[in-house]
Amino acid sequence: MAYSYDTQNIFARILRGEIPCAKVLETAHSLAFNDIQPQAPHHVLVIPRGAYVNADHFALEASDAEIADFARCIGQVCQSLGIRPGEGGAGYRLITNAGEDGVQEVPHYHVHILGGRMLGRMLQKG
Ligand code: 5GP
């Protein structure tokens, strides 16, 4: 089944410049900006510029250039935030939600970068 992409989703509108965002990094194929409702002192969203719904859509259909750019963008944001554990930072967590069980709110692929505090265990029961 092919994914259908909602061109009116909020991140598509951010990419078109129709609504503002607090940009952290722009690359050829990706955009990073602060989450509007941060869950940690650092809460950055990284999105591809292309019309992908979620992680599996992106992984299966994006070009190698888009995938490489996206991965590098995440790394560069972690570097700029000073949260890389190998570089003296205290660490971070990447989260990507997909579909109903993943409780995905915005249907444009995005990775959350969370850091700046102890985040606790990965999942809570229930
Ligand atoms: P999801 O649940 O889809 O993984 O996460 C969507 C995220 O997008 C949420 O953390 C939410 O706070 C964030 N978000 C929703 N609308 C906006 C917006 O207009 N601007 C920004 N910067 N973040 C948004």
Protein model, in words:
The protein is of the alpha+beta class and 126 residues long. It has one domain (10-115): 2-Layer Sandwich (HIT family, subunit A), CATH 3.30.428.10. The chain has three helices and five strands. The chain has helices spanning 10-15, 55-61, 64-81, and strands at 23-26, 30-34, 42-48, 92-95, 111-115. Strand 2 and strand 3 (42-48) form a beta hairpin. The longest helix is centred in the middle third of the chain and has 18 residues, at 64-81. Guanosine-5'-monophosphate binds at residues 10, 21, 33-37, 97, 103-106.
Short description:
The chain is α+β, with helices and mostly antiparallel strands and 126 residues long. 25% of the residues lie in helices and 20% in strands. The protein has one domain (10-115): HIT family, subunit A (2-Layer Sandwich), CATH 3.30.428.
For this entry, give a set of tags.
single chain, 126 residues, alpha+beta, 20% strand, binds guanosine-5'-monophosphate
